[in-house]
Design goal:
Chain lengths: 727, 184
């Protein structure tokens, strides 16, 4: 302390400083300056100051979970699960919760507009382009396009189903080709493979239902059912039931996957087998189980050579014997095929081998086993989304000039489809491209017209539940708020433009689809006539049977044929197997929602970016460290991304999440991360699904470093980062 | 360097500089405090004094207070229900703003004055049910023109009332002074 300033002066000055700081920082809460807009005209059924709750259906994926949305003064405030809805029983996944950020997204298409292809729908400051057409003009454009009926094609996403039904009827009545539906989730879930496998083995094409909730031993072959697979909330519920539902037995769970996914991380045993050997492993376990059970060896498992399996898959005989022993001892063992296991050149064989394994364990059609999902109440036959092969044929039709006008709704093919399929180039051969996108996505950029549909929370509709429950469910959607922008329901636009279907508007079409359910007594409610039915349908959030009506297939012949599981073929040159997986947090279309971007990936804790998972030992040999930017080269293309050293991955495999790498899609998504779909070649399995896990790639260092933002410590739980990496 | 600065501060110029700095801080602080005490600007100079004075009940426009957490703000149709019948609506300069909002179908952006922080779950209903009147907390609105807050809505003020009103009811007192009653 200086001799020129006394202790007393110092204290005085310090007190003055502290007092002013305290006063200045305490100038009242920031919420003091918020604004509240009351209703201009309040609906009769709301009560001023009280929340109004609406039951609707989530549209973030095709699973069809029921939601209850709290609204206050006409604004959607909070999303929760519908406790009575059979799919999710009151639960939601993060994407369901965050559907609000789609509704309030600052980058939405604000009204109908025409623009030159490739021209942005927002400027460099992400200010949305103003609408430049009226809806009357827009309807006229669609009407003119529908006149040339032979050249009209519809490309739809996997949700919502009512629009698929409407466009099917429309296409049928004007003589156009039936609509095709697809999406990135179709690629990663390989639904066509599952339905083809059930057809081959059980003689009936349907979506299989795996009752893991009542099982006491689950063998999952790449099925990431706790993340995004088929119906993640329903399967997560079933998983909890498997673990804790039976007070006497805690279900046991084994995951076979070359990378530890979020699902694998929840398993009791994670077996990192060599990529492409899932079919061999299940056949080997099947043979060991059949041997242990005694009796005649089923034809299906007769030719399995254990030694080949052990050397190919890289598992020890003791491991297989131990698992076989668990299977023999279990009451209701079940094997689940999914994810990367089906996205291989021999994916169909793998799916069939796994289903045959279930037949061997005699669980088909029984609790804790495999059954066929029931059809939805207003459905006559199961509509599988298109396989990648069918999508490629569709792109062929675009290229041949057969398609003059393309309507696109609910899918962003320019981003979601592998570039090697050539969708973006094929668009050039289509005269008119009309997008009904809610958000300014890549495909909307590449379209001539954008006639925006409402957001899912502003829309009417229904979604058929194709898997996840044993009863027949038609999940209902209704607007919870009035539209924020000058958008219009695509169903209304098509009805107004075509004038060939006998429906005045979307609601009349929906009611025509409900007609058969009026008066039915075995459902969640019963109504004597259509208007009452519609009102109850809105109130309950759908209509569903109260009892199980899943189909128990005939499995008699399944073990009688020889299972030949050939080795998987891998396309391209390179030292690494490439395993893309759909991001558990973002899904296929979550990149424009900042809460999802901010949600750390469950296994790596990375946020806001794309990473490449490489085993630390492999990386060490290559001289690669955390956050090094590497170039991944496949026969189809190359992408760059930062490395995440992941100890829980097979040393010969590198993995990358799908969901980022947008070149459009608004301020939160654009220019962030990389898209692994650019690496995928056009190779298919026997069922026509994309062999997305059947690529080999090279990894090249770029010499640059780009830090990944991640929640976990940089030092890591395994001590990486302590040694020579960061001296 | 530091020594030189301290010497300068202790000199005549330094003392003046310190005084000016201190005065600046104090006036900023005073302005800050003043800002918390004046009612914010509202899009419409709505006079509570007049409306309550005419005999309109609080719950007529803010009915949610009786049934739930939030009292709610009246819709424009409610304003218009009466105002469209009054000649003055179309002649008064102050009411031109309301006419503008209603006729152009624009929502009125009110600025709330009685606010508690987000971590407090305040519910109106039990307070009304316990026999409190609106003016017990919000002051006598027959004397207030533009909405303003008569007191700082802080925890001490809440607890003070809970304690004095239920001093002789130990069961209620425990419930009403429990943290989890408002912070959950």
């Amino acid at each position: 302390m200086s001799e020129n300033i006394s202790r007393r002066d110092f204290l005085k000055l310090a007190t003055v400083g502290a007092a002013t700081t305290a006063v200045l920082t305490g100038c009242g809460p920031a919420s003091r300056y918020i604004k509240r807009e009351p209703y201009m005209e309040m609906p009769e059924y709301t009560y001023n100051g009280l929340s109004t709750y609406y039951a609707t259906t989530c549209r973030e994926c095709a699973a069809g979970c029921g939601l209850i949305v709290r609204t206050m003064q006409g604004r959607a405030i909070k999303v929760e699960g519908n406790p009575n809805h059979p799919v999710n029983l009151g639960k939601t996944c993060p994407r369901g919760q965050i559907t609000l950020q789609g509704l309030y997204n600052p980058n939405r298409v604000r009204g109908p507009l025409k623009h030159a292809r490739g021209e942005g729908l927002y400027d460099t400051n992400f200010q949305d382009a103003p609408p430049n057409l009226s809806w009357d003009e827009a309807v006229q454009v669609v009407a003119d396009a529908l006149q040339a009926s032979a050249g009209v094609a519809f490309l739809l996403g996997t949700a919502p189903d009512h629009l698929f039904d409407l466009s099917s009827e429309l296409a049928n009545s004007i003589g156009a080709a039936a609509p095709i539906r697809f999406g990135a989730s179709s690629i990663f879930e390989a639904r066509a493979t599952l339905s083809k496998a059930t057809e081959d083995l059980f003689g009936q094409a349907a979506m299989p239902f795996f009752d893991i909730g009542n099982s006491d031993l689950v063998l999952s072959f790449g099925a990431n059912f706790l993340e995004t697979w088929l119906s993640p909330v329903a399967y997560s519920r079933a998983y909890a039931q498997m673990r804790r539902g039976n007070p006497k037995i805690r279900g046991y769970f084994i995951q076979f996957e070359s990378r530890m996914s979020q699902t694998a991380a929840k398993a009791d045993e994670w077996i990192p087998i060599h990529p492409g050997t899932e079919g061999l492993v299940v056949a080997a376990i099947g043979r060991l189980v059949a041997e242990a059970k005694g009796g005649e060896m089923p034809v299906a498992f007769e030719t399995v050579d254990l030694n080949t399996v052990i050397s190919e898959a890289g598992v020890r005989l003791e491991t297989l014997e131990h698992i076989a022993q668990l299977v023999v001892e279990a009451f209701t063992p079940i094997a689940v095929p999914g994810g990367g296991a089906l996205g291989l050149s021999n994916g169909l064989q793998i799916a069939e081998a796994i289903l045959a394994f279930n037949v061997l364990n005699d669980n088909v059609g029984k609790p804790g086993g495999v059954s066929l999902s029931p059809l939805s109440p207003n459905q006559d036959v199961y509509h599988s989304p298109a396989s990648a092969q069918e999508m490629t044929d569709f792109i062929g039709r675009m290229n041949s000039g057969e398609i003059k006008t393309l309507f696109i709704h609910g899918i962003n093919p320019v981003f979601e489809l592998p570039t090697s399929l050539g969708f973006a180039e094929a668009l050039a051969n289509v005269e008119t491209v009309i997008s009904f996108a809610t958000f300014p996505d890549e495909t909307a950029f590449a379209s001539d017209y954008v006639f925006p549909d409402h957001h899912g929370l502003e829309s009417w509709g229904y979604q058929r539940v194709t898997t996840g429950v044993t009863q027949s469910v038609l999940s209902g959607a209704q607007p919870v708020v009035s539209p924020n922008y000058d958008t219009r329901a695509t169903a209304d636009v098509l009805l107004a433009a075509s004038q060939v279907l006998p429906f005045k508007d979307e609601m009349e079409f929906l009611q025509s689809k409900f007609a058969a359910l009026v008066g039915q007594a075995d459902g969640s409610f019963s109504a004597p006539e259509i208007n009452t039915f519609t009102a109850y349908f809105q109130q309950h959030g759908g209509w569903w049977k109260t009892t199980s009506d899943s189909v128990s297939p005939s499995a008699a012949s399944a073990l009688g044929t020889n299972l030949t599981v050939e080795p998987a073929q891998f396309a391209g040159e390179g030292e690494f197997f490439f395993l893309p997986f759909i991001s558990p947090t973002l899904g296929e279309a979550g990149a424009n929602k900042p809460w999802l971007q901010e949600l750390p990936d469950p296994t790596t804790t990375v946020m806001w970016n794309t990473w490449v998972e490489i085993n630390p030992e492999t990386a060490h040999e290559l001289g690669i460290e955390n956050d090094d930017v590497v170039k991944i080269i496949s026969e189809a293309g190359e992408v760059e991304a930062s490395v995440y050293l992941y100890p829980a991955i097979h040393p010969e495999v590198i993995a990358m999440p799908f969901g980022q790498g947008h070149t459009a899609y608004g301020r939160y998504a654009q220019g962030r991360g990389a898209n692994p779909a650019n690496l995928l070649g056009a190779h298919f399995n026997e069922a026509g699904d994309l062999a997305f896990a059947g690529m080999k790639v090279k990894v090249e260092k770029t010499g640059r470093k780009q830090s990944l933002s991640r929640l976990e410590s940089r030092i890591g739980v395994y001590g990486e980062g302590m040694g020579e990496e960061h001296p | 360097m530091i020594r030189n600065f301290i010497e300068w501060v202790m000199g005549p110029m330094g003392r003046i500089a310190v005084l000016i700095t201190a005065l600046t801080f104090f006036s900023l602080a005073a302005f800050g405090i003043y800002q918390t005490q004046v009612p914010p600007d509202q899009p419409i100079e709505f006079t509570h004094k007049l409306h309550v004075g005419l005999g309109i009940q609080c719950l007529y426009c803010h009915p949610g207070a009786l049934r739930g957490p939030s009292p709610g703000l009246p819709t424009q149709t409610k304003c218009w229900g009466c105002h469209q019948q009054m000649e003055k609506t179309f002649t008064s300069e102050k009411l031109a703003v309301l006419v503008d909002y209603v006729q152009n179908n624009r929502p009125i952006e009110w600025v709330p004055v009685a606010q508690v922080p987000d971590f407090v779950h305040f519910t109106h209903r039990p307070h009304i049910a316990a026999g409190l009147n609106c003016e017990d907390c919000h002051g006598d609105m027959t004397k207030v023109e533009i909405a303003q807050n008569p007191q700082v809505l802080n925890m001490g003020w809440c607890l003070n009332c809970h304690k004095t009103r239920h001093a002789n009811e130990p069961e209620k007192l425990i419930k009403l002074t429990d943290c989890g009653t408002c912070h959950y």
